What does this fold into?
Amino acid sequence: MTGRICGTGSALPHFRVTNDDLSKIMDTSDEWIKSRTGIETRYLATEETTTSLAVEAARQALENAGVEAAELDTIIAATVTPDKLFPTLSCEIQNALGAVNATAFDISAGCSGFLFALNTVQAYIESGCCKKALILGAEVLSKIMDWEDRSTCVLFGDGAGAAVICADETGILKCVQRSDGTKGMALHCYNRPVNNPYKKNPVDLDYTHMNGQEVYKFAVRTVPKTISEILGSVGVTPDEISLFILHQANIRIIESVAKRLNQPMEKFPLNLTECGNISAASVPTLLDKVNRRGLIKKGDKIVLAGFGAGLTWGAAVLTW
Ligand code: UT7
It folds into this structure.
């Protein structure tokens, strides 16, 4: 048995912010953001929360798959921006959906989170302890941005994507997940500091810090290598892949991966233009977009790949 993606869903906040909107509140420009990243707009939560976006994406994915919440045995949400430290986002989703038979837990793997959730569910399915799972990537990154740091805050957006994974005869051919903690400080955000009667610290909350060029170099080196390795391991060539659904951080990274794999950009759908970088939600929101537009046909082979904080990276090749 393997895992098959049998339904997708996504949700974005209603409030859309253009590059020009940002240029009115900070020293930036549409020209800089678009030419360096490809991003034109992003959606930022004003009324929504990580949980409300995730629940909406989950409901859509269940409907798309024709699966009832009570049929789920596993729920895994990938997030670095849960609304609460506990209970987990996954348990909140379980409660909202009435998924009474599921075991729910979160994964924190930055922008690779959805791939890590997929890989985990795949291992559960292969071991026989899971038949129907819901996996999600959900983020409200705008709450961990320093809105005075133009080098990070213009890049990120909010949103959630979900997929229902069913045990089946065909589907995922291979998944990999990797990490390199030695480069962790390239993209980091501190949690609350130690603060108790014996050790006092100011409780100022930290925001996202990124060494953009280091992460950029890591991405353009690691992503094509990982995709080539995973394809080679199952005897599939890049030419046989219909779509490469990559984490949406920067169009220049995606163009570089396309070039290194010798594949046309038409095979690399985008949602960063509209949504910016939504971390763990990038891959599943884009997957939902192409699925709902009918751009993937049964039997097509597709690649999913994520990379980001940790540093972490992951990829999957599957038959739709
Ligand atoms: O999802 C997690 C993974 N994250 C990524 O994959 C991000 C990877 N990195 C990148 O995408 C790029 O490195 C960035 C888009 C973050 C930055 O692009 P860059 O070409 O590496 O620009 P830079 O950081 O070298 O900055 C160039 C200039 C600087 O000015 P000086 O020092 O050359 O005068 C910055 O101060 O651009 C300036 N700058 C800005 N200017 C206008 C930085 N941010 C902005 C801004 N608007 N928002």
User: Anything to note?
Assistant: The chain has a mean pLDDT of 97.
